[in-house]
Amino acid sequence: MEDVKVSQTVRNQQSIDRAFASHYGKSMFLAIIGLLILTFIGTRMFTHVDLNLYGYIVGTIVFIGGFFYRFISWGERPPTKVIIKKGIKLLLRKNTPKTSVEQLATYRFIWNRGIYRWTQHILIGWGCVLAILVTFPLVFSWMYFTMQENGMYTIVLFGMDLMVVPADGFIAFMSYNALNISAIMVIIGVCMALYRRLRNLQARAEQQVIYDFLPLYLLLFISITGLTLTVLNLFFEGKGQYVMSLIHQFSVIVTLIYMPFGKLAHIPFRPLSVFARNYREHYGEKSMQACKVCGTGFVSTEQSQDVINVLGENNLTFDMKEGFNLAELCLPCRRKYRISRFSGFPTHEVSVKEANQNAKG
Amino acid sequence: MTFTIREPKQTETETEERRRLYMELENCIGCRSCLAACTQCGGHEQKNRNYVYDVNPLVNRETMPLMCLHCVDPACARSCPAQAIQIHETGAVLSALVEKCIGCQNCTIACPYGIPKFDEEENLMYKCDLCIDRTKDNIPPMCASVCPTNTLQWLTESEIEVKQSKNDVGNDKWVTSMPYLEGETNVTVNLPGILQGTVKLF
Q: Going by C-beta distance under 8 Å and a sequence separation of 6 or more, which residues neighbour residue B18?
């Protein structure tokens, strides 16, 4: 009887989701429609399309396809689902802007891992962001330049005249050379990264050619071919410019298609670290889980429960006969509890702090 | 017309038997060499990832080492929202990939043995990776290579079988399994007390 009811409600549901066969189809449809609308507005009803860049348009659409495929299959995992769902709910927390800047713009945590690594990361990261911010508005003609009066450029953003600047002025100079600057930033950053990977014994022990080097070579490929375009124009009267622009286009499109699947996937996925920080801070303020043995609050009650549920979905349950779940013990007590299981003596009930665990004599 | 079938030449790594970490808990004297050695492994950045515990600190000096047991179905990796914890083809559960770890610390809560550590400053989890740069080439992990009392050993399957035959206590409980652990692990642990009566030469 109940089964019949359920199937009826599904059939009667008028949700827009019913129009799509899958999440993937829906996300893809909405993304392409969004791009079309933005481009319609940005190009003043398709009157200013730069067809020279159409290869990048195709590349972007293939990238979006790969990105949604990867992101949706990833978001289906139970722990990821929890973080995304609660992270979105907590996005309006007071701390979000500060956390976002620290995690996504200034890379404070990488600074703490080492200044050399921070420098290379900020050069590569911001070089790429700058290049993306210039390239994609140009590809979809959300931004273009017109010259109405001689010697003065009008910068048009989303169909609106943003500002009029002298063609030989500072802003115009920065606009023409933004991609050259970003290319130089990326080349320096990638060379630093390559040098570290060749010299640092620690990096050499762990790195793999395909996972760690390929993305660096791709970025180098893009930056060098892009910079070569400028060199050809400035010093060789544009000889070979046509071929080089195709090679450059190829390098960008290959990297875009590869991006959601390799090491570079951390770029679109990294905002999740803001979600994670908010999740820990918010639920930590609400209530802390007291360790079932020593009583110390060590993690938010919410996270402790979420982890227990996630593990339950994976058929892992750590309910002990003493009446607690292992996720409800603080870390030292959980380790002592294991020692007690090995020896038969209840080590976790002796309230002596764990001694000399840092190997510093 | 005759055909000869040429056997594919076996490479050295194929003939060499894979080894596993084997712990004889009774031997531990609490010297903490394993902790010090751990800091020196490539990729560990001077921070150790294992533990040595006093069993009954107010009464006697018995100690036991505790490190990642490299579960066959690791709870840390199952609870990771970023898929940052990968499992190596040798079965070692690796430390978080630095670019993927989002710092949620789910793994530290999920691990039934409380092994993963978290660096707040670097916003990064780190745990025993069985010195993967060494063990992938069948070189013992740092902790096992320095252990002065053979508490930590790097043995082949057949050597572990020999150990088992020597220590037959008639209940196939000579190594930890359920109920001492929460699931199957790649590290073999020999419980204390089982070797009683065996003369050991350190």
A: B90, B138, B156, B157
Kindly report the number of other CB atoms within 10 A of residue A160's CB atom.
10
Q: Across the interface, do B192 and A342 touch by the CB < 8 Å criterion?
A: yes
Query: Which residues have a Cβ under 8 Å from the Cβ of A270 and sit 6 or more positions away?
Result: A103, A104, B102
| Calpha distance B140→B162 (Å, rounded) | 19
Domains of chain A: 23-269 (1.20.950), 287-349 (no CATH)
Chain B residue numbers with beta carbons less than 8 Å from the beta carbon of A263 are 99
Q: What is the pLDDT of residues A337-354, one digit of tens each?
A: 999 888 888 888 888 888
A338 touches chain B (CB under 8 A): yes
- Phi/psi at B137 (nearest 5 deg)? -105, 20
According to DSSP, residue B27 is labeled G
CB B115 within 8 A of CB B128: yes
Rounded-to-integer distance, Cα A62 and Cα A185, Å: 27
CATH numbers and ranges of domains, chain B: 13-190 (3.30.70.20)
CB contact under 8 A, A336 and B53: yes
Say what percent of chain A tops pLDDT 70: 96
